Amino acid sequence: MVSYTCSKQFSGYPCCHRQWRHQGHCRFVHGYSRSFTCWFRARQLDANGFVVDFSGLRELEAQLAGQFDHTFLVNADDPLLEQWQALHAQGALDLRVMANVGMESSAELVWTWANELLLARDDGRSCCWKVEAREDVRNAACFEATPEWFAQALP
Prior knowledge:
The protein has one domain (4-152): Tetrahydropterin Synthase, Chain A (2-Layer Sandwich), CATH 3.30.479. It contains 4 helices and 6 strands; from the N terminus they run E-E-H-E-H-E-H-E-E-H.
């Protein structure tokens, strides 16, 4: 199988979160400037000779900014959710409720968004097969999978 790949980094998303179940210091509110690297794959290049035209990823960039730029992320089952919602209503924080605020789940969320965009735009010609979610220069987590619709189109 012939496959072309490329990657694109999205960075500069300062946000904070907490892992309320964690027994150590991660249970406290803390923050990072998150970044995401997306890896794309295509069996054939587009009319411009690209796997993915990066200028066509503005919608994904907007989703990343809306979710992670100066926001406070909490798990949907956080026992303090009502307090966080009250602080959001008072304008003290910009709350985003997620199934899981961890970097692994964040990578999976971005993978989902990227593939929704690519499927709609490129009709299955390209896909995102890996996302790295980085909280700083030392720590990152990845989600890697081939979307079913892309895998089914393999020869």
